[in-house]
């Protein structure tokens, strides 16, 4: 009975509100305009390295305040960024709108600047400080094609009145205002927004110019003025979110707030009814309806009934609103945070850079697929969240975090001895062998590197980040949609031709082996010659029969010297330029298990690098890996649909924007 009364009350409330023409919450993520400055960065690698942290900083500010600025790096390769949600968006809608900015703004890269106007928010980045700019060469006015022809002169006066009043209010109300003006035939609604960093004088100057420009749209039913420092829009339709805006001069909004006040009691009853419904098991059906609105009935049912489904709100609370102090790291696809669920279980929550709503079925199917992949050396993917402004992945949590924090630690606080390093190498090999040959679905990881190897309490390795790897059928091994992974670990045939097989993972594993044995990163940010790469150094020492020189002196011991040398040779064999010369991962496991007693001599056919500059010189799968400056390869030869989002120690971190959504499981 209580639930029935609740529903009746809710129905009456909705009927009352329907008479007021209220616009319910809308993040307004429709694209209005985007400009890129078409000026290439002086050093694209450094600009890329600054871009992602700038976006992360913006995200933190916008999520907290609806506005933010960020400066990362120094000129001429700095990234100065600004984002602003319009004042009528609530926090959830603001996050949704900014999520779209974060998806769209990088399309300007590698240009040094870009401007993006959505209907609910604004974003911009440059390589200089622009925060006090109110005008730019891109400033423009956009008018609708539909005109109000009933009485153009009267309509024009109404537009002028509404625009003038709201612009005046905005400069006196922290840069934001909404309002309306009416005549006998129509009502004109206006929204004005200055960026929060502008003072009153700059805001006034921007809005004055925008108001003058937008009046030229009349008698069009709608107009927008897009300026570097402000946004102004009018329409004959109520487009702003009434529930989020402050009281305006219009009689409509006053009436709305009166009705809202009268309905407070009814809302309390509604909340009580929802609580009762939740206790009776009806809440799940309400959540499913929400998912249905997002993804359709069939997909919503699959998500709701799956044990892989996590609520966004639960994960937000678990990570303390994705607090910076809970950040564990940042990978090719997103930022990872530590979270504690309501039952006390610790998890790792990956906040993906791109929302998955447009390719939800493929994404959810892959999450389901990877969840079923179980091995002692693989991190378990627990599930995902798809009901919030950003898509989230939930993994097992390991407090020791990733391998790179140990092998590249110069403080010796996390020193791994040789036995521990060998166990890690063998565990990673066994995990990859399982993905390639033993799991029900053949999976190629594509991004094996030290930061994607987690360590449990006993320092046993767990491969992570294969949740976004592509699973392949037997006849699907050639990619035409771009490269994903980390340069320095990428096989030459994959860099040049996009040809992907398990042997690409073998190559990456070989590089990882050399890093573990030497304690050095695979590539250096200096120079463009072969002698600067780890592969080159190890190969040169191999030719000189002086491999002892490359062993990390923190683990060097004559008692294990031969064993270490044998492992180095396995690593070099895995990094052969010709993929056919590389062993399979199952063969690598055999070699590692027998290395203590084996006298087998591994024959290396050719070096895994060659110091030549033009990448065009590489022909076929037997080509040799260029050990040139990786940033040159990144920016000059990557397919257009790949996006470089970071540079780490001279290696490009790539994300293919279209790969997952265009591919089929």
Globally, the shape reads elongated
CATH class of the largest domain: Mainly Alpha
pLDDT averaged over residues: 75
Amount of beta strand: 15-25%
For the record, the CATH architecture of the largest domain stands as Orthogonal Bundle
| CATH domain topology of the largest domain | Transferase(Phosphotransferase), domain 1
Q: What class do helices, strands and sheet pairing give? A: alpha+beta
- How much helix, percentage-wise, in residues? 25-40%
Treating each run of at least 4 consecutive H or I residues as one helix, how many helices? Answer: 20
Number of domains: 5
Unreliable segments (pLDDT under 50, ≥5 consecutive)? 1-25, 246-260, 276-289, 469-483, 524-531, 610-665
- Spatially, the strands of the biggest sheet line up as 1-4-5-3-2
The largest β sheet comes out as:
5 strands, antiparallel
**Which homologous superfamily in CATH is the superfamily of the largest domain?**
Transferase(Phosphotransferase) domain 1
Care to count the β-strands? 20
Report how far apart the termini are.
48 Å
């Amino acid at each position: 009975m209580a639930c029935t009364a609740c529903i009746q009350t809710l129905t009456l409330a909705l009927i009352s509100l329907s008479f007021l023409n209220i616009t319910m919450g809308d993040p307004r993520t429709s694209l209005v305009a985007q400009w890129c400055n078409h000026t290439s960065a002086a050093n694209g690698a450094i600009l890329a390295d600054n871009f992602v942290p700038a976006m992360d900083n913006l995200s933190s500010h916008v999520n907290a305040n609806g506005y933010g600025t960020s400066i990362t790096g120094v000129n001429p390769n700095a990234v100065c960024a600004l984002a602003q949600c319009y004042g009528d968006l609530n926090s959830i809608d603001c996050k949704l709108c900014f999520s779209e900015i974060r998806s769209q703004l990088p399309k300007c890269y590698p240009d040094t600047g870009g401007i993006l106007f959505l209907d609910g928010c604004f974003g911009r980045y440059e390589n200089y400080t622009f925060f006090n700019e109110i005008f730019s060469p891109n400033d423009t006015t956009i008018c609708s094609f539909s005109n109000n022809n009933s009485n153009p002169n009267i309509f024009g006066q109404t537009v002028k009145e509404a625009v003038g009043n709201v612009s005046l209010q905005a400069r006196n109300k922290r840069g934001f205002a909404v309002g309306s003006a009416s005549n006998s035939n129509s009502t004109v609604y206006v929204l004005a927004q200055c960026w929060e960093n502008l003072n009153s004088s700059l805001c006034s100057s921007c809005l004055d110019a925008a108001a003058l420009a937008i009046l030229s749209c009349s008698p069009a039913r709608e107009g927008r003025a897009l300026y570097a420092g402000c946004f102004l829009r009018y329409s004959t339709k109520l487009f702003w979110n009434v529930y989020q805006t402050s009281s305006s001069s219009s009689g409509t909004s006053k009436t709305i707030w009166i009705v809202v006040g009268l309905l407070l009691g009814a809302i309390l009853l509604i909340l009580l009814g929802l609580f009762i419904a939740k206790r009776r098991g009806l809440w799940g059906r309400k959540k499913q309806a929400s998912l249905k609105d997002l993804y359709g009935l069939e997909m919503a049912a699959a998500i709701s009934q799956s044990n892989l489904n996590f609520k966004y709100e639960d994960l937000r609370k678990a990570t303390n609103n994705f607090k910076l102090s809970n950040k564990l790291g940042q990978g090719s696809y997103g930022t990872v945070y530590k979270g504690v669920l309501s039952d006390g279980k610790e998890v790792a929550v990956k906040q993906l850079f791109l929302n998955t709503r447009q390719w939800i079925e493929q994404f959810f199917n892959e999450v389901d697929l990877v969840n079923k992949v179980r091995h002692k050396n693989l991190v378990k993917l627990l599930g995902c969240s798809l009901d919030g402004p950003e898509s989230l992945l939930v993994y097992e949590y390991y407090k020791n975090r990733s391998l790179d924090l140990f092998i590249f630690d110069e403080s010796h606080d996390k020193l791994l001895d040789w036995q521990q390093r060998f166990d890690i190498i063998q565990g990673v090999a066994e995990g990859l062998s399982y993905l390639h040959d033993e799991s029900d679905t053949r999976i190629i990881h594509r991004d094996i590197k030290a930061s994607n190897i987690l360590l449990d309490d006993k320092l046993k390795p767990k491969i992570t980040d294969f949740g976004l790897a592509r699973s392949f059928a037997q006849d699907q091994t050639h990619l035409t949609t771009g490269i994903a992974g980390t340069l320095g670990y990428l096989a030459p045939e994959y860099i040049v031709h996009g040809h992907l097989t398990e042997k690409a993972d073998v190559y990456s594993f070989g590089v990882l082996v050399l890093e573990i044995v030497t304690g050095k990163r695979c590539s250096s940010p200096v120079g463009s010659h072969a002698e600067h790469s780890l592969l080159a150094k190890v190969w040169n020492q191999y030719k000189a029969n002086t491999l002892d020189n490359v062993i990390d002196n923190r683990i060097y011991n004559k008692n294990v010297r031969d064993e270490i040398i044998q492992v180095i040779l396995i690593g070099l064999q895995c990094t052969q330029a010709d993929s056919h010369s590389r062993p399979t991962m199952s063969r690598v496991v055999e070699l590692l298990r027998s290395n203590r007693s084996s006298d087998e001599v591994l024959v290396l056919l050719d070096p895994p690098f060659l110091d030549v500059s033009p990448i065009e010189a590489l022909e076929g799968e037997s080509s040799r890996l260029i050990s040139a400056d990786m940033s040159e390869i990144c920016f000059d030869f990557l397919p257009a649909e790949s996006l470089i989002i970071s540079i780490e120690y001279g290696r490009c971190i790539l994300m293919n924007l279209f790969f997952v959504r265009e591919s089929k499981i």
